[in-house]
Amino acid sequence: MTQQRAALVIGNANYTGPNTKKLRNPVNDASAIAKRLKKYGFGLTQVSDGSFSDMRVALSTFQGAIRPGGVALVFFAGHGIQIDGENFLFACDTDASGENQAKFSSLSLNQVIDVLDRSKADTKIIILDACRENPFEAAWHRSGATRGLASVFAPRGTIIAYATSPGQVALDGRSSNGVYTGALLQHIDTPDCPIETLFKRVRNAVAAETTGKQITWEHTSLAGDFYFNTSAGTFVTAYKASSLADSLFVLDDGKKSHQIIRGLKSYDWYAQNPALDRLKPGLANTINDDDLFVLGRNIYQAANGGARTAEGFIRDFVDKTSGMKPDKIHPLLDGMLFEVFFDSKGELRENIKGNMFDDVFELQKFSQFKDSFDFIAETLIGAHGDFYVVPGKGHTLSVSVVTEKEKRGRRITGVFIDTVNVFTLRDAEYAEDEDGPTLTRGVTRENYEEELAKELVVPRRLLQVRYSPPVQGGDTLRYPYGWGVTKQ
Fold it and tell me: What angle do CA 415, 417, 423 make, to 5 degrees?
């Protein structure tokens, strides 16, 4: 079962309290980290330029989101300081006119640790890019021994990562991100990288960037491994790693199945079509599961690229596989479904390979293929795929499309899912011009709903679309250029 992941992400830059100084990067840092965490399955509680009250409310909300056996992560970027050996994370309205004022108007790191320690999460992570040079220290006449943050005890199952060593300060960075967060962003996408190894790589990157002036530090009591990004090979056991990351798959031309795969890999229709014609039920029944899985992947990629025989094979899959043993059909279809979502390294695609998505998911209507759709659903959950509904589960998605009447039809202005408008401008060049009309293209209702289903990664038959106001039969929908739906 996939662990539930919850994160509290705070970025404070616009400091307004006494003796504090505005920072350049923390809001950007927090936003970039939040985007990555969402990609890897974390539910987010976010604060940008938050007050002390905002931070306390967010901590409480986050506490309620932590699940037993799950992962709980806190990221903070902004001003932080130790006072009498205790660390405090500054809100934008923290009163730094004196030590007592600062203590009672900022978030105690000990309080954050206590929330995590009391939770039943298996893995607890705290990342602090919060050790920047602070001007209020001079106002308090404090010694250099109290610079930066103090080391703290990490309760069992916890790792605490600091942007720099205890008592030292970190650099705010010359780009849009701080040096530490920039290095973390550089390495967090590495697949199958244990978190301790990740932070070692971050340490090397920060040291190189600062010519050794800034050395990161961690305190850990983790009992097991944790990975932000896991490739399918870490949790799919039914197939070999060389089948899941099929760039590692070695072709043996002595095998008939490999000869077919080579033909399909050619990207040449004149080679792909006759190669697939050789796949007969009698041959399929002699092929091992891993070869059938890779064969399924290549049938789908050929069909996605327009090879007619491969397109027909998917559309007539029930007839084409008639005579194959059920336990041979299963890995073949598994491979097709896997290819939709995973690349040649076994990593989740940024954008699905979707030209034949609806066709292959039509097969979900047949009960004999249930195991394959269960396989892809569980695989996507394991990979922390971010979908409105998990493909393969067979769930319906309802959306409401809002339109406005214009001369040539009805312009789409919103697409609402669970009260949230997910219709956004994707390309800034198409931003609405005050001096002219928004550029739109005309689409039929049928074509628009097919496009929408593909964008939402939902089989067309499982997408329910309602229009506000209702669209009449003769109405033309106008789709603004540069716009589309996004996962919020």
Answer: 30
**Three-class SS string for 215-227?**
CCEEEECCCCCCE
404/480 Cα distance (integer angstroms): 12
Find out whether 438 and 370 touch, Cβ atoms under 8 Å.
no
If you write DSSP's letter for every residue of 37-105 in order, what string do you get?
HHHTTEEEEEEES--HHHHHHHHHHHHHH--TTSEEEEEEES-EEEETTEEEEEPTT---SSHHHHHTT
Take residue 483 and report the two structure tokens written for it.
Answer: 């716009």
Residue pair 127/188 in contact by the 8 Å Cβ criterion: no
Burial pattern 404-414, b for ≥16 Cβ within 10 A else e, equals: eeeeebbbbeb
Phi-psi region at 173: left, alpha or beta (left = phi > 0; alpha = psi -120 to 50): left
Tokens of 246: 């099929």
For the stretch 352-407, pLDDT in tens is 999 999 999 999 999 999 999 999 999 998 888 888 899 999 999 999 999 999 88
Residue closest to 221 by CA, chosen among 283, 161, 292 = 161
Please tell me the chain's helix, strand, coil percentages from 3-state DSSP, rounded to the nearest 5: 40, 20, 40
Backbone angles phi, psi at 463, to 5 degrees: -105, 120
What pTM, to 2 d.p., does this model score?
0.75
* Cβ neighbour number for residue 351 with a 10 Å cutoff: 7
**Which residues is 420 bridged to in the sheet?**
417
Beta bridge partners of 162: 128, 217
Return the axis-axis angle of helices 269-277 and 308-315, rounded to nearest 10°: 40
Of 167, 109, 176, residue with least CA distance to 133: 167
Q: Is 457 exposed, middle or buried (0-12, 13-18, 19+ CB in 10 A)?
A: buried
Q: What one-letter code names the amino acid at 397?
A: L
Buried b / exposed e along 21-40 (16+ C-beta atoms within 10 A): eebebbbbbbbbbbeebbbb
The pLDDT tens digits of the residues spanning 79-120 come to: 988 888 888 999 999 988 888 888 899 999 999 999 999 998
The string of DSSP codes covering 147-168 is: -S-------TTEEEEESS-TT-
DSSP track, 233-293? GGT--SS-HHHHSGGGPPP-TTSHHHHHHHHHTT--HHHHHHHHHT--HHHHTTS-HHHHH
